[in-house]
Structures are given as C-alpha cells and as structure tokens.
Amino acid sequence: MEDLSYYEILEVSQSADKTTIKKAYRAMAKKYHPDKNPGDKEAEHKFKLCNEAYQCLSDEQQKSIYDRYGKEGLQGMGGGGGRRSSAGFDDLGSMFEEMFNGFGGGGSRRRRNPADVDKYPLDMNVDMRLSFDEAIFGCEKEVTFKYKKACKDCKGTGAKNGKLSTCKQCGGQGQVAMQQGFMTFAQTCPACQGTGTAATDKCKSCKGRGYDEVKESVSVKIPAGIDTGNRLRVSGKGNIGKNGSRGDLYVTFEVAQDKHFIRDDNDVYIEIPVFFTQAITGETITIPSLTGELELKLQVGTRDKQRFTFRSEGIEDVHGHGKGNLIAIINIQYPEKLNDEQKDLIAKLQSSFGIESTPHEGVLESAIDKMKSWFK
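-> structure tokens emitted (376 positions)
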C-alpha cells in the first residue's frame, strides 16, 4: 500500500474536492481503525497510511506541493508525511469523536485506557536559526534538546505509586459537555485528557507531571537550499512514551537575511549601483554572485531598475530540482553636485547630440498648441 499514491490510498481521483476527500477518509479510517481491528497489524498500518494521506490532501499548500513534486516535495516540510498542521489534527479529532464516541453518531463511546495514554505527544519540535550561507550551501549542526521520558516511579501516570482515582471534573466519563447557544457539544475532559481518571496523590519524583526530562544532542545534516519554515525530521529522537516507543524530532528553521542578497524562493536578487556614465556607455562591470564573481555587460543606455538575469546562479532547490537564478537590478547613481567644469562638459555633450538631446520640446509644443485650442 506504501507504493500507492495518496489519492489511491483514499480511493479518490486527483480532481476530487475537499468534501469528497474527507468523505473517503472517514470511510477508510472507520474501516481500518485499530479499535475495530484489535491486534491486526496490517489494518493498523493501513490506518496510519490513511492518516498520512488525509493530512496531506486536506491541506491546500501540502496538496499543491504533492501534486507537483510527489512525496519528495514534502520532505523539507517534515518527512514523507509532510507537515502536520494543527487544523488537520483538529479535523481528525472531530471525525473520531463522531465515529466512535457515540455523540450524534449513535455508536458506543470508547474511552482510552489510562495505562496507554501518554501525558505528552511523542513527536517534538525544536527551532534552529541559520545564517544565510549555512542555509544556501548546507551544513552540519549540533542540536541540543530535552526530550520527555515516562517517570519510572509512577509509570508515567503522574500519580504516587501509579494509583489513580475517578476524575472529579468528568466523573470518570472522559468527556465534558460544552454548551454554545442552544446546542450542546461533548469534548475531551481537559483535566484527565479523556482517560476518566486522575492522580489520587501526585508523584514526588516527577511532581505529578508523569515524565522526566533528559538532555540529548544529535548531529543534523542540513541540505543546501533550506529556507525559513522548512522542517527536517530526525527519526526516533522525540519523546519516549510509557510503552517505550519513541517519537520523532522535528527541526524548524529560520534563516537570517543577508546584507546584499535578497532571497525569493530559489531566486536571489542583488542591487547593483551603476554610475550614470557607465549606463550610458554600456560598460562591462564585475558583480558578486553566490559562488564568486560574474561579468555584467551593460547595454548602451541601460535604464534604472533594469534587470539582468543569470540562469542557474541562484540557490539549489532543497528537493533537488535544479537551481534558481541570480537577478541583478540596476540602481543608476547620479552626482549630487557639479562644478563649473563638469557643467560645461555636460552642456557640450548634450549639444553634440543635436535635436536628439531635446526630445521634450516637440511633445510639449504639441501639447501646448492643443491646450490653447481649447480656449479659442
């Protein structure tokens, strides 16, 4: 099933709209949900693939990238499954409440076994700031972080000797009612996270948290072309749950700006100051690039803000789809002051062009004549 596309996993076409994708996911999730297939490893695996497919296809940005580049295009956003948006998880949560909790769906409510519920997510995130050159050329960085590990004394429950009692807030139901207007909704109890139980006394070792924090470092190889907002997944370096399973560590990047180069995706812009005489004569000048120097041949009469593009001199695509361009933008500089000799020289230069040096005269005379005709 791994070889299937996300559309094939959910059994929908690539042109399917959000409603169709959501409906297909509901059916597949209900079919393969572990609660309906206890002990069936294959069903559990298919259920995870359905989740992965829906998280991608229900997010417009991820879907667009997936349609264009496939799963590889999502690697920079946090691995094969793409970036996990909070909106996607909220949607999944509401589906499971409807399908399995019996509120509005008519089924029987299922409450999680408190012994299986971790007090924290297994996946975790750390932020990392990179310099401009580290991001465009790639590098290797040491990441130091703290991960959570279930407390041994209370077995991750947060209760002294692991002793739990009925949650007072929900009365052991695992859910509380919330009224909005004339409608009443059921939501997971915030006190017990849906387990229906609470600590009789807090564990002294972890102070009721249910976990200890452990410091760790890991070396991360950062690919060339990484950009702000990109995420890199380090498998098996996240938090550790009660059953010993460990989540993933996600590193989210922020890239510092450069003083001269301005990044736009994989393209790079640089402003080139050019004296007006250089622009007039079409001089050849040397400009900086990301990897060295380039020769820029100005056109005779180069205009201010004119752009010159150097193909494949930009940033390498983080997914390996070639390189962007370097765009040099001309910023023509004029003298702030002129001495008498310079004024004479410019006057002689202007007169040497004859009528070509006064293009405004013919246009303005025609406009003035038209204006006068309005008042005859």
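The mean pLDDT is 82.
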